[in-house]
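Q: How would the structure tokens look for this protein?
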Amino acid sequence: MLQIEDIFGNRINAENSKVMQSKAPSCAAMKANTDSQPSNPRELAWEKGFVALKQFRAREKHCRVPRRHQEGAFNLGTWVINQRNRRATLSVERRRRLDAIGFDWTLLPFARASWEQGFAALKQFQSREGHCRVPRGYEEGSFKLGRWVRRQRNKRKTMSTAFRRQLDAIKFDWNPNEDRWEKGFAALKQFKAREKHCRVPRRHQEGAFNLGTWVVNQRNRRTTLSVQRRQQLDAIGFVWRLK
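A: Here is the predicted structure in token form.
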């Protein structure tokens, strides 16, 4: 039987050498096995997030993960937001994997559905109360309408034209403080037209409006009132200081 020497000078059978070589993994196989197991912490974190998202989708049938949602102990809501914010810098492979499971990059359909739900609740409130001045913590059924209304006011400048038109059509109060001031000024002019002066008693009500309280507030806020408002009050003989 043919014998050969190994690198250490030991003599071995040639047949056994072939068996050993056939069992040894190739360099390419070793590299492929290494590549399939990400060792970079960031890579591992991304894979963990993707697995959590697939788990969420399998259960919920969509990828619209709430902002603060945790999948087990993993902050999946935050992870999903990061993917949207980094869309332009994500690798092509990662974008394809997310697309393959129906990832929502913009959430527009979901956002519109949520907005329509809030608008329906507001219309219901308006038809019953006769106005859109929703109290801050108010809930219409189980919908947090007060919070929704506040968000619409904060987003007025960035809101879509279609949404603004829908709100304007039901006389949405974009600035409730401005509307209340104008209502108070109209009540004061009505009082003055009848009484010939602006010395409103502290507890006086003009119709259902607490005009006495409103007048006291104008005096207390004289230094912070806009020039235009002070001029409007001066024009009808407003009494800034009672003697």
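The chain has three domains: 41-100, 108-169, 178-235.

Residues 108-129 form the longest helix (22 residues).

Upvote if useful.
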